[in-house]
């Protein structure tokens, strides 16, 4: 996919090219009065000299949502000019018919206002190159514009689908405007294979992912790894045992999100353990789900668990069923079921929202052993308060490693520790720089660093 | 502290040996008093109630256990064959009925509406008891078994593995001090009781299994060899049920130790005779030692005087075997029986005896550490 | 095979999403992957609906305990499905006035809208409102001053709860400007901004790392427990 | 029977007690002297339960006659019965007996979940003095047919079936019963014996039990031993075991019906009686105690912590029949780390096996003794580990959390054995009681049990605890007095702080004030010191542990306590807890040598 400016349209036949041009011509006719209008307004003010040699170029290493502009300052830059107004206009992609090279009839939108002396600018999504909003302008500046040109909402982002023209107007301190300078050819951005904005993230990802993989390999080599005891998982046997002794069921609730949520997957790993224990104890484990796909996966998980426990005959698919996709409908069902059937053990493993406390409190009132695990920070306090055991965020994801006891899985936890070290170093460096920058305000480089961390690394 | 010594192992040329052959549960005795029985002859048999097979219908057909009663198609006591429908669900409005076909044959023992379980009892298992001892039935215990008596040559081992087996005696070792190696075992020893001398090696046992020997008798065995044969480290000396392929009898103990000459000579004298061997050992209250029983032919019975076994008292002049380090395995005679306890090298006080060893040396040994050589 | 193919799909799908994040060029591949997921989820919905029907029909057929509720569920399910699917009572769209079913099934005043607005919404709201009671009961139980940590937390919770009410503002209103930091409402804001955020971030970092490593394990097929048990 | 004699028992002047073990019957005589009740004489005779005698009373009479001869009293009248009550020269006021003849009471227990009701059932059976042959539970990972096979194979004297809370599970407990009934275990005592079954499970399932065990079983239904998961109620089940033991098991053992007629209190299984006395002591003195009895085949551990009694039997940890199993479980390197000189491993392995097949032999040389004591350390250590795992808080209990526990979510089923809280450690059994030197016994106990803080060490002089256990039921005062004065031989006290440090660095400072012993000094980490403090003496010991060491009041906190002396004395143990030995044999040997020397263990050994 070559989006170069001069590239012909290989797929377009001559006919379509013709019709294309025709339509352009018709459009041109329609906007003629507007051109006249604008030309008049320009002629009215005797402003500073315009900028020259305005060029638009592709911004490297991006997703095609930026454009780099360069220009030479106005001759009056040092004297008259206070700022440059940068405008952008969207248009069809491709070469522009010769007769439309000066398309001042296009709908230009103000992108930014830069101070005199500036010679380059990146239009796009990079911080600092955002679009100007009406409220950001001073009253004088605002007077220069038709409010309709500056809608108080973000302009459309640059995309590879369209072409763009840019213009710059030098504005004097008295409000006088120069003649506009327009880019010679429409600019069509291109997408690159790599997004430079995500460079730091990529580095961190590679270090982190690499260390996880490294430790997994390391563990495969047979190195013994220790893991802290996680009470909530150790208690699975106890909870299932309680249900068995009391002749009640175990209820497993895999959260309210679908299988594409990692929390639901983590929940499934715990379910596999719960089901295996239940199979060994010959207890009943009930899994009402809120998504059909979760039901299907849960069935697979439970069946495999029963098989590995050597009791395939005890598996009953009817205990894993679908209730409803509706959050509160699901909660209503669960609550009713809990109050009627009084399960002796309740497991909440997955993504939860407002229903967390409703479920956990109901479970508590019926005297069930409750074990919860979620990575929803807002719901954690509720689970902690109402459940016997709670797997807090990270522990929840460590569950599968913990339960399997396989060295390679435990290795991944070690890899996670590397991640923590990176974060720890990052926090210490960041906090130190930010603190110093706040103390020595005049030391520019500290502020720059701190801005760089905030603006580039952390986005 | 009445008898703080191990009663010795019997190694006798001729003894009237009695053996009790009892069914685990009451059954039918097939021989009558006075009958002559052969070692491998069945003397009593019975049928054990068959294995029970629980079938959890509630799970298999996904229904509450309380429904099981209505859904089972058979009644308690009825027979069921493999593939025959055992139960059918009620279905949804009479449709989608599920049928469970039995995977086992047997009779329905119970149907439970609490557990949802049906118990099928399989075919009765025949249990037979063989005579083991070629001899005469001296007593019939109705419905239980028989007592069999015969004049035999009798050798008790100290330790064995494997159950009862039968075969003719064949010597593999030339002397009681020769170790039993794999190359000494030849294919013609199939079905035989192989007699070695001193330590039996692990690969010799392997070879014996390979050639299909009935039993191996040797003086000693190394702990690690035993571990290799069994596949695990033996913790408690209760054996007899191992399925290693051969019955093994050790006459002296663990380590490099030669078979007692007397034992070796006795076995050597009976080469070619038919012997019954049992490796079952149980070292607990009611001790059981492995044994080699060689029935005597009638001429032999006449020829030899039955050995007179006394109660086995420690007396000066009696042959004893020392059964603990530092003199383990040595044989000597009682030279003195001091009555006062003495302080041992270990610092404990115990009753001791003086033993005159074959070398002429006299050593002091705690009474607990000697064993009478009987017979 | 039963294991390998799902693992392959997971791995490819997952890595495409990761790759797409870093490579603008392949941005839309990720979107496509997500669309595949939606397709699968939609198919699975049929399974879910079928399962729902089966369970409640069975219950009704067996006249099991509480089968009346099952009948109601079935009716509700059927009616909603029919009304929505057949677009009953929907005004035709202006574009196709001759087709009665051309309108929007959720349009205001339609029976489906009515069901949503007057049956579904109030029911949902009822469930949600129960939360308030449970918060009270959970807080009552959880905040027992058993040890030092509990006492600290109890105190903090008290300040925050008070700060969120008018009483809190009113109670410390008399404080001079110099001590404004100690006003309960300000304290609340300060606690929420500094301590709560700090704690939350710590948990968030753990969660993020957990998610990353878990995802990696799933993608690499190290963790297969979601496909059943750990063994092949 | 018991109630009437109980009141008379308080005036008893002469008490006779026997314990019918599987090989010997031991009789002791307790008399009221000027200094209260004292054990005065003892005698023993071979047990006569098996053929050719087949009458337990013969052995009892023989043992009693021996006691009578020593005491110059006549206990047996011409008809061969014990004379009661006592006169000046004849008879006794109270006669009691325990029994473990014929292998003791062998039971099989069943429950629903192995860690819950089945564990409670096991606790009840063990507490009553039974040997638990196997535990059947729905989650014991055996398939039903394997469970049936096992029930058929074992021949228990009695079964205890429990499971389900009251109103809880019936399905599992009924299905277990449904397996037992058709499996029809054959009792040891032959076909005339109907197997007694105690049902102590969900009361709702009791009617079903009646139906299932209608034929061929002797069913006794008692209160649920776990009415709710939060509470255990073992009393009724234990009592039922004792009753059935007498009614059925004993009644089938030869001669016991006669013996039962003689005794003034029901005959108890020996270990049950030991547990009884330990519980009585712990309760009356308000202490925590651990008792151990290491035998040839099994090792029994008894503990009372915070008034909760637990007993475990480690079936295959013993010093003769099971010695090979100890070596297999503990592994040779673990055993050899306690040996301070070189030994040939292959030879040792064969020696161990030879001991297994000739269990009655005794070590003759010092080397053999050192090795045997090393094995004993490991056997005791393993038995204690098993005990710790068994003696736990109840499992399956709902935890009430408050926000304070967020980051310390303790699970149920934690062990209640806490060495720091342990006050008294009592040893009995051949290798401990008959060690040539008491110092060996003391260090054996310390090494194997690793008591923390201040712990009094004692040994049961002549294994009198079973007798006293029964006596405690009829005459607690006499039992207590004899226990204190004659039964226990105090070895001394061990002072050992918990924690770890660098070898050679200070572990704790001590100051001792006593009538004969007045010393102060410092113990370095890795050092052990023996100070003489004779039996009957006490001293006040002040310990100031280092920062990382805890002697009962928390790390680095000073502790002051009065300690009891004994035949060994006061042991100041700075080796740290848990006691860690270097992995390499070379590093281990000099260390052990140092300790052996400090404790004067093997004086004959250069």
Structural write-up:
- The complex is a heterotetramer of chains A (459), B (375), C (232) and D (606).
- By secondary structure, chain A is of the alpha/beta class.
- Chain A contains 13 helices and 13 strands.
- Helices cover 44% and strands 17% of the residues of chain A.
- In chain A, helix 5 (231-246) packs across helix 6 (262-281).
- The longest helix of chain A is centred in the last third of the chain and has 33 residues, at 407-439.
- The model of chain A is unreliable at 1-45 (pLDDT under 50).
- Chain C has helices spanning 4-22, 27-62, 67-85, 111-142, 148-163, 166-171, 184-220.
- Chain C has a domain at 143-226 and 228-232.
- The termini of chain C are close together.
- The mean pLDDT of chain C is 83.
- Chain D folds into three domains: 2-101, 2-Layer Sandwich (Nucleotidyltransferase, domain 5); 104-253, Response regulator (Rossmann fold, 3-Layer(aba) Sandwich), CATH 3.40.50.2300; 290-394 and 413-598, no CATH class.
- Chain D is built from 18 helices and 22 strands.
- Chain D has helices spanning 2-9, 56-71, 117-127, 144-153, 171-183, 206-212, 235-252, 256-262, 270-285, 323-330, 332-336, 345-357, 366-390, 430-433, 438-449, 465-474, 476-487, 585-598; strands at 14-20, 24-33, 36-46, 94-99, 106-110, 131-136, 158-161, 195-199, 217-221, 268-269, 289-294, 299-305, 308-314, 424-428, 453-460, 488-496, 506-514, 518-524, 528-531, 538-545, 559-564, 569-573.
- An eight-stranded mixed β-sheet of chain D has the order 13-12-11-14-15-16-22-19, sandwiched between helices. In chain D, strands 3-2-1-4-10 form a five-stranded mixed β-sheet, with helices on both faces. Chain D has a five-stranded parallel β-sheet with strand order 6-5-7-8-9, sandwiched between helices.
- In chain D, a hairpin with a 3-residue loop joins strand 17 and strand 18 (518-524).
- In chain D, helix 16 runs antiparallel to helix 17 (476-487).
- In chain D, 59% of the residues are buried.
- Chains in contact: A-B, A-C, A-D, B-C, B-D, C-D.
- Chain C binds chain D through residues 141-144, 146-150, 153-154, and chain D through 400-406.
């Amino acid at each position: 996919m070559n989006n170069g400016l001069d590239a012909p349209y290989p797929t377009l036949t001559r006919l379509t090219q013709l019709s294309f041009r025709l339509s352009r011509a018709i459009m041109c006719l329609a906007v003629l009065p507007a051109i006249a209008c604008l030309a008049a307004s320009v002629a009215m003010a005797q402003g500073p000299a315009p900028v020259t040699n305005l060029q638009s170029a592709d911004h490297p290493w991006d997703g095609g949502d930026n454009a780099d502009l360069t220009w030479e300052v106005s001759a009056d830059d040092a004297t008259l000019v206070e700022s440059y107004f940068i405008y952008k206009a969207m248009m069809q992609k491709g070469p522009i018919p010769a007769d439309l090279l000066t398309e001042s009839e296009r709908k230009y939108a103000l992108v930014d206002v830069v101070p005199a002396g500036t010679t380059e600018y990146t239009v796009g999504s990079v911080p600092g190159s955002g679009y100007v909003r009406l409220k950001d302008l001073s009253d004088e500046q605002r007077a220069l514009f038709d409010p309709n040109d500056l809608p108080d909402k973000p302009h459309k982002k640059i995309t590879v689908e369209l072409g763009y023209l840019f213009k710059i107007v030098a504005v004097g301190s008295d409000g006088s405007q120069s003649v506009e300078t327009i880019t010679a050819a429409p600019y069509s951005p291109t997408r690159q294979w790599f997004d430079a904005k995500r460079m730091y993230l990529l580095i961190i990802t590679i270090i982190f992912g690499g260390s996880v993989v490294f430790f997994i390999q390391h563990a495969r080599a047979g190195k013994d790894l220790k893991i802290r005891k996680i009470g909530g998982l150790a208690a699975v046997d106890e909870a299932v045992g309680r249900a068995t002794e009391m002749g009640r069921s175990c209820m497993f609730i895999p959260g309210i999100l679908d299988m594409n949520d990692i929390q639901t997957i983590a929940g499934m790993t715990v379910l596999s353990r719960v089901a295996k224990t239940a199979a060994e104890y010959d207890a009943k484990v009930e899994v009402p789900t809120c998504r059909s796909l979760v039901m299907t996966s849960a069935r697979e998980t439970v069946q495999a668990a029963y098989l590995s426990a050597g009791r395939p005959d005890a598996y009953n698919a009817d205990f894993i069923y679908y209730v409803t996709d509706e959050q509160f409908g699901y909660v209503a069902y669960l609550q009713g079921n809990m109050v009627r059937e009084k399960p002796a053990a309740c497991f909440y493993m997955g993504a939860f929202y407002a229903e967390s406390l409703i479920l956990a409190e109901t479970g508590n009132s019926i005297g069930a052993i409750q074990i919860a695990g979620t990575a929803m920070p807002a719901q954690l306090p509720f689970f902690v308060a109402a459940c016997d055991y709670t797997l807090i965020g990270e522990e929840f994801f460590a569950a599968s490693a913990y339960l399997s006891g396989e060295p390679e899985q435990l290795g991944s936890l070690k890899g996670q520790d590397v991640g923590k070290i990176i974060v720890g170093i990052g926090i210490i460096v960041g906090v130190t720089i930010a603190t110093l920058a706040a103390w020595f305000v005049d030391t520019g480089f500290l502020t720059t660093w701190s801005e760089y961390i905030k603006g580039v690394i952390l986005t | 502290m009445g008898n703080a010594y191990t009663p010795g192992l019997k190694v006798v040329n001729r003894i009237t040996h009695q053996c009790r052959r009892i069914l685990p549960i009451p059954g039918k005795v097939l021989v009558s008093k006075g009958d002559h029985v052969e070692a491998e002859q069945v003397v009593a048999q019975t049928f054990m109630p068959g294995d029970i097979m629980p079938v959890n219908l509630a799970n298999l057909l996904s229904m509450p256990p309380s429904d099981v009663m209505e859904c089972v198609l058979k009644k308690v006591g009825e027979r069921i064959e493999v593939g025959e429908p055992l139960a059918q669900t009620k279905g949804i409005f009479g449709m989608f009925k599920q049928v469970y076909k039995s995977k086992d044959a047997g009779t329905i023992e119970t149907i439970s509406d609490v557990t949802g379980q049906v118990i099928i009892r399989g075919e009765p298992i025949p249990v037979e008891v063989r005579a083991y001892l070629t001899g005469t039935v001296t007593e019939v215990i109705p419905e239980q078994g028989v007592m069999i008596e015969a004049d035999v040559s009798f050798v008790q081992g100290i330790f064995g593995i494997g159950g009862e087996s039968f075969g003719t005696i064949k010597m593999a070792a030339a002397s009681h001090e020769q170790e039993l190696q794999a190359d000494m075992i030849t294919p013609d020893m199939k079905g035989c009781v192989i007699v070695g001398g001193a330590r039996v090696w692990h690969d010799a046992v392997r070879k014996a299994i390979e050639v299909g020997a009935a039993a191996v008798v040797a003086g000693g065995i190394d702990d690690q060899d035993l571990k290799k044969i069994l596949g695990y480290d033996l913790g408690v000396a209760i054996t007899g049920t191992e399925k290693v392929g051969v019955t093994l009898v050790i006459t002296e103990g663990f380590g490099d130790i030669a078979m007692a000459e007397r034992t070796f000579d006795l076995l050597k004298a009976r080469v070619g005779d038919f012997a019954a061997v049992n490796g079952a050992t149980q070292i607990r209250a009611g001790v059981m030692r492995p044994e080699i029983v060689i029935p005597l032919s009638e001429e032999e019975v006449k020829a030899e005087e039955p050995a007179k076994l006394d109660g086995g008292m420690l007396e000066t002049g009696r042959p004893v075997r020392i059964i603990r380090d530092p003199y383990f395995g040595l044989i000597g005679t009682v030279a003195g029986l001091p009555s006062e306890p003495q302080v041992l090298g270990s610092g404990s006080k115990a009753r001791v005896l003086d033993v005159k060893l074959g070398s002429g040396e006299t050593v002091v040994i705690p009474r607990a550490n000697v064993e009478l050589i009987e017979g | 095979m039963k294991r390998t193919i799902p693992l392959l799909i997971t791995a490819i799908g997952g890595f495409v999403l990761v790759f797409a994040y870093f490579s603008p060029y392949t941005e839309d591949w990720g979107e496509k992957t997500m669309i595949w997921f939606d397709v699968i989820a939609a198919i699975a919905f049929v399974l879910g609906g079928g399962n729902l029907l089966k369970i409640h029909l069975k219950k009704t057929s067996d006249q099991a305990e509480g089968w009346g509720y099952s009948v109601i569920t079935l009716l509700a399910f059927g009616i909603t499905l029919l009304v929505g699917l057949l677009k009953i009572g929907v005004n035709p769209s202006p574009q196709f006035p001759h087709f009665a079913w051309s309108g929007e099934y959720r349009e205001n005043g339609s029976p489906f809208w009515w069901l949503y607005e007057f049956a579904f919404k109030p029911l949902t709201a009822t469930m949600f409102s129960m939360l308030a009671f449970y918060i009270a009961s959970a807080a009552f139980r959880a905040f027992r001053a058993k040890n030092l940590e509990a006492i600290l937390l109890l105190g903090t919770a008290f300040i925050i709860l008070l700060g969120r009410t008018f009483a809190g503002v009113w109670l410390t209103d008399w404080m001079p400007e110099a001590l404004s930091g100690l006003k309960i409402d300000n304290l609340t804001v300060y606690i929420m901004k500094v301590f709560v955020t700090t704690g939350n971030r710590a948990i968030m970092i753990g969660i993020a790392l957990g998610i990353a490593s878990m995802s990696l394990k799933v993608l690499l097929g190290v963790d297969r427990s979601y496909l059943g048990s750990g063994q092949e | 029977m018991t109630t009437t004699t109980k009141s008379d028992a308080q005036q008893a002047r002469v008490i006779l007690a026997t314990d019918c073990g599987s090989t010997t019957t031991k009789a002791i005589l307790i008399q009221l002297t000027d200094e209260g009740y004292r054990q005065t004489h003892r005698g023993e005779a071979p047990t006569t339960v098996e053929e050719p005698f087949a009458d337990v009373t013969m052995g009892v009479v023989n043992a009693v006659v021996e006691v009578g001869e020593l005491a110059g009293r006549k206990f047996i009248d011409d008809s061969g019965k014990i004379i009661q009550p006592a006169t000046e020269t004849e008879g006794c006021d109270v006669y009691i007996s325990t029994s473990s003849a014929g292998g003791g009471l062998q039971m099989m227990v069943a429950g629903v979940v192995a860690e819950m009701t089945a564990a409670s059932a096991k606790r009840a059976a063990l507490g009553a003095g039974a040997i638990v042959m196997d535990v059947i539970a729905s989650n014991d990972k055996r398939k039903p047919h394997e469970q049936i096979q096992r029930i058929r194979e074992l021949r228990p004297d009695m079964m205890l079936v429990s499971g389900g809370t009251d109103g809880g599970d019936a399905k599992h407990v009924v299905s277990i019963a449904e397996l037992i009934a058709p499996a029809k275990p054959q009792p040891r005592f032959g076909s005339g014996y109907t197997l007694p079954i105690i049902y102590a499970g969900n009361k709702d399932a009791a009617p079903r039990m009646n139906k299932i065990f209608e034929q061929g079983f002797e069913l006794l239904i008692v209160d649920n031993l776990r009415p709710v998961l939060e509470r255990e109620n073992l009393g009724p089940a234990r009592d039922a075991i004792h009753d059935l033991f007498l009614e059925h098991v004993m009644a089938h053992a030869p001669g016991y019906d006669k013996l039962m007629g003689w005794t003034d209190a029901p005959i108890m299984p020996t270990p049950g009686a030991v547990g009884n006395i330990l519980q009585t002591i712990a309760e009356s003195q308000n202490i925590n105690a651990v008792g151990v009895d290491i035998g040839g085949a099994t090792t029994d551990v008894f503990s009372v912590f915070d008034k909760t009694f637990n007993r475990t039997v480690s079936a295959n940890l013993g010093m003769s029949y099971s010695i090979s199993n100890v070596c297999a479980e503990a592994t040779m390197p673990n055993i050899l780390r306690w040996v301070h000189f070189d030994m040939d491993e292959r030879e040792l392995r064969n020696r161990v096996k030879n001991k297994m097949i000739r269990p009655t032999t005794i070590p003759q040389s010092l080397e053999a003794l050192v090795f045997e004591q090393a094995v004993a350390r490991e056997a005791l250590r393993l038995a204690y580990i098993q005990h710790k795992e068994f003696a736990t808080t109840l499992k399956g209990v709902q935890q009430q959390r408050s926000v304070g526990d967020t980051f310390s979510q303790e699970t149920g089923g934690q062990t209640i054995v806490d060495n720091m809280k342990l006050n008294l450690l009592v040893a009995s059994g051949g290798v401990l009681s008959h060690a040539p030197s008491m110092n060996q016994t003391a260090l054996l106990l310390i090494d194997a049990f690793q008591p923390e803080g201040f712990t009094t060490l004692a040994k049961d002089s002549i294994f009198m605890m079973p007798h006293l256990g029964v006596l405690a039921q009829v005459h607690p005062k006499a039992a207590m007095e004899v226990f204190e004065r004659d039964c226990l031989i105090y070895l001394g006290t061990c002072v050992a702080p918990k924690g770890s440090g660098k070898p050679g660095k200070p572990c704790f400072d001590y100051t001792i004030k006593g009538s004969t012993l007045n010393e102060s000094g410092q113990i370095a980490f890795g050092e052990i010191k023996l100070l003489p403090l004779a039996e009957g003496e006490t001293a006040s010991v002040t310990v100031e542990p280092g920062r990382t060491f805890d002697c009962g009041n928390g790390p680095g906190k000073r502790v002051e306590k009065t300690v009891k002396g004994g035949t060994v004395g006061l042991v100041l143990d700075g080796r740290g807890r848990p006691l860690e030995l270097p992995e390499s044999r070379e590093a281990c040997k000099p260390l052990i040598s140092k300790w052996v020397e400090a404790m004067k263990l093997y004086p004959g050994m250069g």
